[in-house]
Design a protein that fits this description.
Blueprint (H helix, E strand, L loop, with lengths): L1 H26 L2 H11 L6 H10 L6 H9 L6 E3 L5 E3 L32 H36 L4 H14 L3 H12 L22 H30 L3 H8 L4 H13 L1 H24 L5 H10 L3 H29 L7
Length: 348
């Protein structure tokens, strides 16, 4: 297990470097840098002024050098103006180059400063991830149990009317995108059009105080889409396991149907659904973009939209790092958990 974790950590690190470099390259294309310059200066800047600003702020260095600075493995750029004032990536307004650290990047915990929020990105990421984490937790608590129950019941009753009904419901929910179900929920349960004003059509107040009234609709809109997909996978796995020889042997020994399902069938049938559930976590992290925007819940997804819309390169890079990290960690947890779900699987 230790050797597996070491090897997997190396692969994860290499994957993270490759993915973040691709994002860094795309966000630092010339049109984006020009937009950044004019947003920091003014929209009437000439081409010469744009090039001068980029040169003075370290954007005209080789791409690999700038990527190393952003990671914190290469020294930050510095320059001294004609009036003697010192500037640099790691130089703070009240410090000189000699007083400033040489390295100030991701490795050192320096995420940069947001151009939109005008504050340190590390604080923004922590705050927004906490908000989105609450939303994701609520979705998982609703989605996973509901999907597993539906899938297990349908798989146990394969070919029956119950199976067909639950399968039709699963297909319907999977084919309905979360932004469609979100709009439908708002119209049905929070607007004057229908009159069933049971919930709030916005989740802004849930950022400070989560209640059943302000948090139900965004949770249900996200959970409904995932329920059908996980339920279909659970149903297929359960139906396959129920035809195995050891299930028939357990029934012939006189064990009750419920005992056979819970003790023998369910554990082996959970491997595929567990993989899908783990894959829902990175999807939820980035998939909340639409729901958080629709319900005005200013979490990670809303922040990602703000970063893209305002060309906030540093904030966009930080969001990409978090997304990559979550994907890699969830996959690692999935691989390790397989061993405990199925003893026949061994880590080699």
């Amino acid at each position: 297990m230790i050797s597996f974790l070491i090897k997997r950590s190396g692969v994860m690190l290499l994957t993270a470097l490759c993915l973040t470099f691709v994002v860094f390259f795309l966000t630092n294309l010339e049109p984006n840098l020009e937009k950044l310059t004019k947003s920091e200066g003014n929209m009437r800047m000439t081409d010469e002024q744009v090039q001068s600003w980029l040169q003075n702020n370290g954007y005209r260095q080789p791409l690999l050098k700038r990527y190393g600075e952003w990671l914190g493995v290469a020294p930050g750029w510095t320059r001294t103006a004609d009036d003697g004032k010192e500037f640099g990536r790691c130089v703070k307004p009240d410090e000189s180059i000699a007083q400033s650290p040489r390295f100030c990047g991701l490795v050192q915990g320096e995420w940069g400063r947001s151009l939109v929020f005008r504050t340190d990105i590390s604080g923004i990421i922590k705050e927004k991830l906490t908000l989105t984490g609450k939303l994701m937790l609520g979705v998982l608590l609703v989605m996973a149990p509901a999907a597993l129950i539906i899938g297990v019941i349908a798989g146990m009753r394969e070919g029956t009317k119950t199976d067909r009904t639950l399968s039709a419901f699963s297909i319907l929910t999977t084919s309905t995108p979360e932004y469609v179900s979100g709009v439908i929920f708002i119209v049905l349960f929070s607007s004057k059009l229908v009159g069933l004003r049971w919930f709030k059509g916005t989740a802004t107040s849930a950022m400070e105080n989560i209640t059943f009234e302000n948090f139900t609709l965004p949770v249900m809109a996200l959970a409904l889409y995932g329920v059908g997909y996980i339920a279909r996978m659970t149903r297929a796995s359960m139906a396959e396991v129920m035809t195995e020889q050891y299930i028939r042997t357990a029934r012939l020994k006189g064990l009750s149907f419920g005992s056979v399902v819970i003790k023998h069938a369910l554990r082996n049938a959970l491997i595929a659904p567990f993989t899908v559930i783990m894959l829902q976590i990175p999807w939820l992290l980035t998939g909340v973009v639409i729901i958080e925007t629709l319900f005005n819940y200013k979490g990670f997804g809303w922040t990602l939209v703000a970063a893209v819309g305002n060309n906030d390169i540093e904030l966009l890079l930080a969001c990409s790092v978090v997304a990559v990290f979550v994907v890699l960690i969830t996959q690692l947890i999935s691989d390790i958990s397989y061993v405990y779900l199925n003893p026949r699987i061994r880590v080699s």
